[in-house]
Amino acid sequence: MVAPELVKQYVDTGKVKLVWRDFAWIGEESRQAAQAARCAGRQGKFWEYHDYLFNNQRGENRGQFSPANLRQFASTLGLDTGEFDACLERAEDIPSIQQELATARARGVSATPSFFVNDQRLVGARGIEAFNQAIDAELARVGVR
After folding, report:
1. Distance between CA atoms of residues 77 and 86, nearest Å
2. How many domains does the structure of the chain reveal?
3. Which region among 35-39, 61-65, 101-105, 123-127 has the lowest average model confidence (pLDDT)?
4. Is residue 104 domain-resident?
5. What are phi and psi of 57, to 5 degrees?
6. Where residue 90 falls among pLDDT bands split at 50, 70, 90?
7. Domain range for residue 2?
8. Are 36 and 43 in contact (CB under 8 A)?
9. Confidence (pTM)
10. Helix (H, G, I), strand (E, B), or coil: what is residue 117?
């Protein structure tokens, strides 16, 4: 997996900031899943929940990310389910999730995964070398060693 190595090389050393942006484009289930991940994040478990969602995909809009399943995932990960359920029900992040989708589309994103190293877009699953090359070039451009 590429992400842990990138975090170790660049984020943990303070050279790079990793920013997640939702691209909930598949439909209602993707918006609900994005909301659920943000609810998990309020309990300090965004990445654990994100990874659980990713590892338990079973096709698009087939019920895998229904509210009942999203709640079960929270329970499986040891989240405070009362707090999680209330957050999921409020759905207060849906407007910003939709805004992130619109912003991504305006920047030319049309598929996942997509990554930006400042303004350089990398589309598709990439190996560590592609990220190293893009990040190192940008760090050199701004004078960071």
Report:
1. 17
2. 2
3. 61-65
4. no
5. -70, 145
6. very high
7. 1-23+109-145
8. no
9. 0.85
10. strand
